[in-house]
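Entry for the shared binder. Reason: the reviewer on the internal report wants the predicted structure included alongside the sequence.
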Amino acid sequence: MALQCPKFPLLPPKTSLFPHLSSESAIHSSLSSTSRSISLSRTSSSITSSTPDPTSHLTPKQQTIILTSLSDWRESLRTLYEFKSRPDYQPNPVHYNIVLRTLGLARKWDQLRLLWIDMAKEGVFPTNTTYATLIDVFSKAGMVREALLWLKHMKSRGIVPDEVTMSTVLCALKNLGEFDLAVKYFNNWCQGRHGELDFLELDYGSVDVVNPTSFLLSELFKSGSRAPVSANDKKQGDLPRKLQLVSTYNTLIDLFGKAGRLKEASDTFKAMLDAGVKPDSFTFNTMINICASNRNLDEAEQLFDKMAERGVTPDVITFNVLMTMHGSMGDIKAVLSTYERIRLSGLEPDTVSHRIALRLLCEKQMVRQVEKVINGILDSGSFVDEESIPIITKMYIDLGLIHRANKFLKKHCSGERKISSRNYAAIIDTYGEKGLWKEAEAVFYGEREIGYRRDIVEYNIMIKAYGLGKQCEKAFSLYETMKRCGVWPDECTFNTLIHMFSVCGLPGNARYLLDRMRNNGFKPGWQIYSVLMEGYSKKGAFLEAVEVLDEMNNFGVRANEIVYGLLIDMFAELGKVDESLFYLNLMQENGLEPNKVVLTSLIKGYAKSNLLKEAQEVYLQIERIGSEDGGPDTIASNCMLNLYANLGMITEATHIFDELRRKCKANRSSYTIMINLYETLNMLDKATKIFEEFCKLGLEPDVTLVNEIMVCYVAKGDIRGFVDSLKYMLDNKVFPDDMTYCHVFKALKKAGLSNEMVLQLERSFRARNQYVQNAILASAFSLYGMHKLALDLCKSYLISDSKHDLVLYNVAIRVFGSAGHVSKAMNLFTKMSDEGIEPDAVTYENLLFCYGKAGMAAGVRRIHGLVNEGDIGANESLYKALIDAYRDLGRTDLAESVEREMRFVLFSDDDSDFGATEIEDS
C-alpha cells in the first residue's frame, strides 16, 4: 500500500510538543516578569535570605511556559535545575523534553547525555514526545542514521511510536532523500508492524565508537529508565492506525512531492479530505508547489481557488509559490499581478516576495518596474533584502548604467546596514566580470558597519577582479595585505593568483606563488600546472614549460591528456614534430591514449613542416576514432585544408572544404584559406564567390579575410567589389590594418585617381598624420558614389578642434564636390587659405573637378590662366583635370586646345622635370 498523499519546500511540521499551552497567552504575559526575575536573581549578589524566591509560586504548567520561552541552552538548563531544587517539585517529563530539545538544537551533546542520565536517576520515563524530540534534533544535526537508531531504542523499551514520532521519522528520511524507506516505514506503522525495522539496517554494533558523537550515542542507549508496558498498550501497538494530524498529512504530501511521485501526493491529499482532516494553508501551499513544479499550472490555479471554498485563507507563502510558478514560465505580467494581489488580500509582501519579484524583473532588465518595487519596500519602512542587492546591481551594470549602480549601492549598503561578506563578494564579482576593477575596488574598500570582517571569499573575488582587469600588482598587494588582517589565503586564492600571472604573461611570478602555495600546505592540482605551462608556452619559454612537467612528476601529480597535449601543441606550433612525437610517446608510456585534440596538434605540426603523408595518416586516425561524434573537428580539417592549399592541391582542398560546409563546420579560417588558394591560382571569380557566401552566412570576418578578398577584387579590376568589401569591413567593426591601406592605394590608382593624389595620401599615411585614415577611406567611398559615408568620414575630422593639414583639405574638397556640395567645397578652400595653408597642384586639380561639375566656367579659366602664367606648377594630372573640366562645360574646343598645350609643354622637352610620378607599390 502506498499512501496517497502531496510539495512545497516544507519545513518539518510545526507541531507543538505541548498543544495544551498554545492558548496560554495570558499566562505568558503574566510570567514575563517572573522569567526576568529568575535571570536577575542569578546575577545579583545582594539577595538576602528574606528575598522571596520568584519560582516558589509557579505551577508545573507555568514552569513549562518559562522553559519553553528560553532559547539559550545555559538558561534553560539552569532554570530546570532551579525548579528541581524546590522541595515540592515533581519530576516532569515535559520539562526534560523541552530542555533536551534546546540542548540538541545547540548541539551540546555532553550536557544532553548528562540530562538523559539524570532522567533515569529521577525515574522519569521517556515518552513518545521524548523520542520524537531526540530523533528531530539528531537528524537536524546531520546525524540521521543515529537519529533513526532511537527507533530501536524505543522498541527495546516497549514504546510504540505515536503519530508525532512517526511523522518526525518521515521528516528525517525525507530530508535524507530516502523516500522509499520513508514510505515503507509509514506503511508498516499504518499496519501495526512498527517493530519491523530491519529494512532500515539499524545496528548498535555498527556505531563507530572512535567518533565522539557516536560514542555519546552508545552511552545514551545504555541509560534511561524502562517504563512498564501494559498488555493493552502492546495490543494497541499491533493494531492498524489511521492518521489524525494535519501535520502528518503535510509531511507525507511533501515527501511524495519531493520524490516526484505525483499520483501518491494527490491521493494523499484526497485521503486527507475523505478522512475529515481539514487542510491548512501549509497543505495547499505544498500541493500548489507540486503542481507548479511539474508545470500543471491549471491545477495549481484550481487549488488556489479551492482554498477559499474550504475556508482556508492564503498566506504570503501561497502567493510566493504562485509568483515562482509564473516566473518559471516567463510570465512576468502574472508575477507582478500576483505581487499586487498580496496587498489586496490584506497581507504584506515578505522578504521572499520581494526577492522573487526583483530577481525576475532584473532578469528581464525592467528598470522602471524594479525601481517601483524598491520604492514600495522603502515606503513600507523595510530594506531591500541583501540577497537582492547583487542582482539589482548586475542589472544596472549589464545595461551600462554604472553611475546608477554606484548610486544604488551607496544608498542601500551604508555603514549602518549589515550586509554579509558573501553578498559583498557577489557585488564585487559583478563589477569584476565586466572589467570594472576600480568600481569593484571602491566596493571592497567602502564603508562597512563597525566590527565588520571580510571573509576569504570576498578577498578572493577582489583578487579575481584585479586579475580580469590585468592589475597584477594590486592583486599581489592585496594577497600580502589579507594575512596582516588575519585572513589566510586558501587554495582558491593561490589558484586565482597563479592563473592571473600566467595569463598576463608573468609565468615567473606564477611559479613563485606555486612554491608559496605548496609551502602553505596546499597540493596544487594538474589544472594549475597546466595553466603555468601554458603561460610559459605563450612567452616562448619552452624549457621552463618542460620543467613544469618534471616538477609535477616530482610532487606526485600525474599528468593527463591535457597536460601532455599542451606540450605536444606547443612544439607543433613551432613545427618541431620530433619533440611533439617524443611527448606523444611519453604520454602513451604512461597509459594515456591520444584523443582528437592531441592528434589535431600533431596534424598542425606536420602541416607546418609540409609533411603530407604523415598528416594524412593522423587525419585518417581521427576519422576512425571520431566517427561516432562527427569525425575530425574544424581545427583538424583546417590544418589539412591549409596544408593542401600550401601545396597547391586544389582537388583535395576543395573536398575537405565541401565536407566542412556540408557539416556546417566551416569557419572564418576555412573561408580565408580557400580565398587565398583561389587567389594564388588566379581563380578570382571563385574567390569572390566564396566571399559572397561567407557574407550571406553572417559569419564574423577579420581583417585577414577581408584583405585577402581585396587583393582578388583589385586583381580583377572590380573596384566596386573592392569598395563594397571595405564597407563590409567597417560595418562589422573590423579595423583596417596597414595591409588594408596598401590595397586601398592600389585600388585608388586603378580607379583613375591621379598619381599625385594617391602619392600624397600614401606619404601622409606613412607619416602617421592624424585623421589621414579617414581621408583615405573617404576617397575610396567617394569614387563609387557612397557619398554619405564619405562625407561622414570627412566631417569626423573637420569638426575637430585639431589643425588640419593640406592633405585632409584636398580630400574634403574632392569629396564634397563629388557629392554635389560645391559651395561647401569652396568654403573649405577659403578656410584653408584663411589658415595660411598654400594650395598645391592636387588642390587645384580638385577645384577643377568641382568647377566642371558645377558649370563654373570662370573658375576653370582662372586656374587655366594661372597654369599658363606659370603660377602653378603644372603636371599631367592637372592638365587632364583641365581637359575634363572643359568637357564638363561642353567646351570641347578648349579641351582639345589644352590637350595640345599639354603635349607641347610636357613632352617636347627631354630635360623637362615634369612627368607623371609613379607610386611605389607597397
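Summary line for the report: The first helix runs from residue 25 to 43.
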